[in-house]
Queue: 2 jobs
Job 1
Amino acid sequence: MGIYSKYVLPKLINCTCSVSTVSKQRAKVVPLAKGEVLEIGIGSGLNLPFYQKDQVDTIWGLEPQSELLLMAKEEGAKHDVPIQYIQASAEDIPLDNQQFDTIVITYTLCSIPAARKALEEMKRVLKPNGQVLFCEHGAAPDPAVLKWQNRINPLWKRLGGGCNLNRRIPELFQDAGFHIPDLQTMYIPGWRPACFNYWGKATLK
Ligand SMILES: C[S@@+](CC[C@H](N)C(=O)[O-])C[C@H]1O[C@@H](n2cnc3c(N)ncnc32)[C@H](O)[C@@H]1O
């Protein structure tokens, strides 16, 4: 791992993901988490203040990047809820089948190299009546914006730790067998190629 990925990128991720427009999106999905919760790509722990502690039993925070996991642990120490940390990738979740009532994933499906495999793993660890609460940026509906997303993506991905601007988020869930009854979308304020957001609750059909 290079100096950029180890020392610069975690701070950059924490900084860009802390902006108020993104926090407003977190507030729309994370408080709906209940029971045993798995957060995929917990990053620096920016969702932790948004959990309703009387609704969640344990939060399992999965994160492959050790520097980000350390930041999440520091944030987690400020919150009165049991948290277990796991250094692992979403494509290979080292946890039991049907363990979770809720999976939370925010601004992470864009960065997971094998998104379909990760979604299959989420299906495996989710209880049959469980929910995946998600908020992601992805492919914009406007052809002009999408054109820019496609053009810039190779450079963006290199600088952004594997983040893709142009993933078709609902299709990824649906192709993996999830149903999204309440999909919501909008451009959050900011640079449009990075700001088309999808959020909602995905359930197993
Ligand atoms: C933009 S950050 C978002 C972090 C956090 N979810 C948030 O909302 O602030 C993308 C996250 O995806 C994580 N990530 C990348 N590849 C992953 C993988 N294969 N499995 C799980 N997480 C991954 C990164 O380490 C990083 O924490």
Note: The chain has a mean pLDDT of 96.
Job 2
Amino acid sequence: MFCDQCGAQLQSGEQRCGRCGKTVLGLVELRRNRVREHIRLVGIFWMAYSALHVVAGLVLIVVAQTIFGRVIHIPNGPPPEVSVWLRPLLTFFGWLILAKAAAAFIAGWGLLQRQEWARIVALVVGFVALLNVPIGTALGIYTLWVLLPRNPMTSTKR
Ligand SMILES: [Zn+2]
């Protein structure tokens, strides 16, 4: 084995490099660190994904309630027969997107807090997100790749 900082050869079982003094990480610890870093990233991405959904959901609801709610008068705006079914439809989808934002936030927050339940929540929202091409699909695949093979919450706990 060699020091990953200065490259000096290490005696087996050595805790500290004799040349540069760097604490020697075993292979298991290096792998753990890498998994931990991936989980942190997945958590951050879910928070960002949640924020995007909050914006999209709110925009949809505001549009539904104003333009299609005939609060704002727009010349050549949508005719009433369109607004009558488009307003509740857009409002419904707006709330649906906000619900997804909440689920994504819970998953991301839980992962960053290293909660064990967060793995299941993230896997569920990850599967659902696969349908949202392209961002959701990318995030879903990354989430499944990091969290599916094992339970990193327990395997990285000391
Ligand atoms: Zn060294």
Note: The chain has a mean pLDDT of 87.
